[in-house]
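Appendix B, example 12.
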Amino acid sequence: MTAELPADVATARLPGSAELPSYRKLALLLTEQIQAGRYGPDTALPTDTELMEAYRLGRQTVRRAFQELVADGQVYRVRGRGTYPTERPKTGRVVRSTGSIEHLEEWTGTEMEVITALHLRRDPAHAADLELDSPVVAQLRVRRWVDDAPFAVTDIIVPPDIGERLVSEDKIPTGRAQGTVIAAVGALEGPVASAEETVTAIILTDEWAAALHTVAGGAALRVKRVYRNADGRPLEISHTVHASDRYEHRLSIHRAHRPSR
């Protein structure tokens, strides 16, 4: 059985930022529908042809969207039957597949909650990493949720001028909301062009454990990222802590140049 498309498919449009390529918009839309329970073991996702007609997309665009969903572990394809959502792991572990800046900016299927408001603090080390003349930075703390379970807490450090714009232009949500701070920073300061990532194994402190609703002393992963614009200017530094029993990180690595024949 294949899920029915909306009755007004002829006028259906893909949601999402105009800057996102169509295959990413389609992948995000299908991800949201999967997480909403629209498809299941006996209900396949729409076919390539149905999606092409519904959203006026080319075949390669639809195929690339499905390739991303397969790579992310969201779906599996059965020849002659269709595409089905992958069963959610019984461990409840969140799997994040990273292959682009867009992946980092979107973090689909999750919500963020600001638990420490944006504030200025003296931090010479991070100020140096942000290439600032002053030792003062702006910082906030965000907790990320999947359903009703927290699985990540992030300290976000930005230059004070960026922090001021985030506040003055109302880019920091209240309560739980979809999206990421780095997407808002990119929208204000110009597109994020690159990210440097360092992953470290740590032990959960009492403070981190309380934020993650778990027990201190367990294993955790700390992921540090430095985001830069096209000119190489640092826009944001993030330190994210994950309880290791709830999180799995997948990195897609591609060859930069095709091998010569």
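The two ends are 44 Å apart (CA to CA). Residues 6-11 have pLDDT under 50 and may be disordered.
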